Amino acid sequence: MATTADISRGMILKLDGNLYSVVEFGQNKTARAAAKVWAKMKGVDNGRSIEHTWNSGDTIYPVRVERKAYQFLYKDESGYTFMDNETFEQITVAESMIDAPQFLKDGQEVGVLMNTETELPMTVELPDKIVLQVTYSEPGLKGDTATRTLKPATVETGATVNVPLFVNEGELIRVNTKSGEYVERVKE
Asked: Which top CATH class is 2-60?
């Protein structure tokens, strides 16, 4: 059995019948009272963010999670379909289980967190940064790089990203999937 001393960032815990991923944790210790361990957690299966406190040494219930490489195939009315790169098995997940569905493009490789107890997918994570082609953007002005002014641009997945004025249609850009922000222009 695991105790509060085993808590680490990214660990998935079972709490009140739901699964939560530890985002941040720490310990509060006062002169008279016993130490308390706190954790800020994000719901894996429900999307809620909570904060929980335990007495130091309390039992916690971690869930063993396995990350597998999958490839995005297509989206239809039943959800998003992915294929395991090793076994070629296909799974379909709901849009709510994907961390940035607006940046998914056909054939893209993603990481799927699988609950090893139930063998069910828990969440789909895109790479931190991906390269996308700009399909529509207002024309930029040559040499206008002095200011940090941004303009909206539509990328190949249909998502809108704010980019600097010098980025034009047809160019490749790197996008941070966690924040949805432009990172840099990519040379071919």
From this structure: mainly beta
Structure pTM? 0.72
Kindly report the length of the chain.
Answer: 188
Query: CATH 2.40.50.140 in the chain, residues?
Result: 65-125, 129-186
d(Cα 155, Cα 164) in Å, to the nearest integer? Answer: 14
Q: What is the pLDDT of residues 80-139, one digit of tens each?
A: 999 998 999 999 998 888 888 899 988 999 999 888 888 888 888 888 899 999 999 887
R_g (Cα) of the chain, nearest Å: 21
Burial zone of 100 (CB within 10 Å; 0-12 exposed, 13-18 middle, 19+ buried): buried
Q: Where in the chain do CATH 2.30.30.30 domains reside?
A: 2-60
pLDDT band at 145 (very low <50, low <70, confident <90, very high): low
Question: If you classify domain 65-125 with CATH, what class do you get?
Answer: mainly beta
- CATH class assigned to 129-186: mainly beta
CB 134 within 8 A of CB 102: no
Whole-number Å distance between alpha carbons of 171 and 178: 21
Place of tokens 């040494």: 57
Six token digits for residue 106: 């056909």
d(CA 27, CA 55): 10
